[in-house]
Amino acid sequence: MGRTGKRSARPETWKKNVRKTLKLQGKSHVSQSGKVVSEKKVSSVDCSKCRFGCKDITGEDRKAIFDIFYALPSYERQKQFVCANIDEQESKTVFGKDQCPLPKKRSVARAFYCTVKGSRVRVCKKFFLATLNIGEGYVSHAMANSDMGTFTGGDGRGRHRAHNRTHDSAVEGVRDHIRSFPCVESHYTRKGTKRQYLDASLTVTKMYHLYKEKCAADGKVPVSCRKYRDVFNSEFNLSFHKPKKDQCMVCVNYAMKQKQEQGLVNEKEEQEFQRHTELKMRAKAEKTQDKELAKKDPTKHVVTLDLQAVLPTPCGLVSQLYYKRKLSVYNFTVYSLADGKATCFVWDETNGRRGSVEIATCLFLYLKSLPVTVKDVILYSDCCGGQNRNQYLAAAFLYALENIPNISITHKYLETGHTQMECDSMHSAISFAKKANPVFIPSGWDIIVRMARRTNPYTVIPIRFTQILDFKYLASQIIRNTKVDKNNKRLCLSSSSARRRQPDLAQIIRPRYTEKLPVSEAKKRDLVSLCRSGVIPEDHHPFYENLPTASSKVDRLEEPDVEDVDSGEETD
Fold first, then answer.
1. Does residue 400 contact residue 364 with C-beta atoms inside 8 Å?
2. Superkingdom of the source (predicted)?
3. Residues forming a β-bridge with 239
4. Can you list the positions of beta strands (E) in 389-458?
5. What is the per-residue DSSP string for 224-271?
6. Which conformational region is residue 34 in: left (phi greater than 0), alpha (psi within -120 to 50 degrees), or beta?
């Protein structure tokens, strides 16, 4: 199945394999029965009357032979060492007084040798066994599995089928259960990854609990959680998508290098980190300053804005929902720093995508809704190039300046990795409110959002496809040069810290979409099946039955991490 990118088993750390390694090296270990086996040593032997050259081999020579034997890396190599140092030939026939052959005590005769200083010295069997501290059975097994002095056998230990091994059919049941969860590909495939993503609300533990429920319903015995996790990690390249935009990689890498190198960071890295810290603190201080200014001056309006994580619909506590593809609902949030008022623009995937023209449309509608007393608008957002930092948003601001009299717009970007804003509290409140209330259709989120804050409730503005304006087309008409600025220097939207323009053009803009956007056939099939099974109430069946579909539509991951999108990349 290829590389999974997950944790894999480390058999070398298992107790039985550690025990086997220690035994191979002749070291002290605890046997499987719990008995302490002492370390192997060269055994003493009296060969003073031996007719071979045993007495000529010193203790140091014997220790050297012993060390060579137990340094060999495998069971087979040690057996080969024994075979290579024993010559075996058929035993001689002895005749009696009547010239009749006598019965042989053994079928073969063995000559034992030790290599000392490059010379092969014949020794007796007792000396050979004592030097290596092995038994006669060890030698007999090695020679019985040798051919012309070469060991041809193998290590049969651990080759039997484990008595507690999980049956193949049970493992296949685990695979089928994992495959039953809908997954999507990453939209940013230029990374070359083949990883697919599961619903962010899932975990392996939650999947295992769902698996146990299914086994109970089918009358089957479930495998252990450990086995389920092993199959998930070793056979599937799946992940649970979790947004990481609030994790600063600059700070994380700097801290890791300090820890690994004991605080020794080179001068360039130190300067980059100090500059990053300075930009972070300056952005934070400037936002605080603008907030206080907006509280005192009603002509100034300061907001933070962000797109919430995808809201899957329907959602609830029914386990069947985990096995089905769901409709994506998007929520673009705007939070006013002066008075705490918050606005949510909500639409589903049939009314628009999760791109820059949708964000630009929401901001244009928000700017139009401001009181005429507001003259200066300051926007704070993160640096996501696909949503907030692109020429389409710049075109939307130009269009707003042309259509809204006496207003100026300043868009400020927080330092990457430090984009925590007040609108994040809206996302948390909405996520908390949905836990106790199931949502069956996209319009159900309007109620959840309003319930999320009882005091000064959030304003909800539903967005339809007819309201989405084509700022991509507008940008192509009014932004002719995106390469250099007025001073003939390279223009990079992703590296600009602030942008301010005054109205100078009157433009006519067209709608982005002329009809609802289709969903994949597989997604509609899953949603309709939830209607048929009674998970979705009957009142909502027509909504899902009338969803438009397209055979070419592919379900992809709609919520990239910051590392998936370069800051200069623009998407619609």
1. yes
2. Eukaryota
3. 197
4. 408-413
5. PHHHHHHHHHHH--EEE----TTS-HHHHHHHHHHHHTTT---HHHHH
6. left
566 within 8 A of 493, measured Cβ to Cβ = no
What distance in Å separates the CA atoms of residue 43 and residue 134, rounded to the nearest whole number?
Answer: 10
pLDDT confidence of 2, banded at 50, 70, 90? very low
C-alpha distances in Å from residue 215, one per residue of 209, 218, 429? 10, 5, 36
Element (H, E) at 274: helix 267-296
∠ CA 239-242-247 to the nearest 5 degrees?
Answer: 125
Say how many residues make up the chain.
572
Cα separation, 393 vs 382, in Å, equals 13
* Burial class of residue 508 in the structure, from the number of CB atoms within 10 Å of its CB (0-12 exposed, 13-18 middle, 19+ buried): exposed
Alpha-carbon distance of 375 to 147, in angstroms, equals 96
b/e for 461-486, b at 16 or more Cβ within 10 A? bebebebbbbbbbbbeebeeeeeeee
At 498 the pLDDT is 44
CA dihedral 23, 27, 28, 31 (to 10 degrees): 0
Which range (154-168, 184-198, 269-283, 456-470) has the least confidence?
184-198
Quickly count: other Cβ atoms within 10 Å of residue 274's Cβ.
11
Higher-confidence position of 495 and 487: 487
19-68, pLDDT tens digit by residue?
A: 999 999 999 999 888 899 999 999 999 888 888 989 889 999 999 999 99
The DSSP letter of residue 441 is S
Q: pLDDT of 106-153, one tens digit each? A: 678 889 999 998 889 999 999 999 999 999 999 999 988 888 778 888
Find all residues with CB under 8 Å of 524, minimum gap 6, and list them. Answer: 544, 547, 549
Residue 568: what pLDDT? 35
**In 35-77, where do the E strands start and end?**
36-37
Gyration radius from the chain CA atoms: 38
Distance CA 339, CA 167 (A): 63
Helical spans, DSSP H, in 101-164? 125-132, 136-144
Contact 130, 111 (CB under 8 A): no
Angle at 417 between CA 268 and CA 429, to 5 degrees: 165
- CA count, 13 A, side-chain hemisphere, 325: 20
Confidence of residue 8 (pLDDT cuts 50, 70, 90): low
Partner residues linked to 556 by β-bridges: 185
CB 352 within 8 A of CB 330: yes
Tokens of 3: 């590389």
**Which amino acid makes up residue 286?**
E
Using alpha carbons, list the distances in angstroms from residue 58 to 45, 63, 81, 130, 434: 12, 9, 20, 13, 83
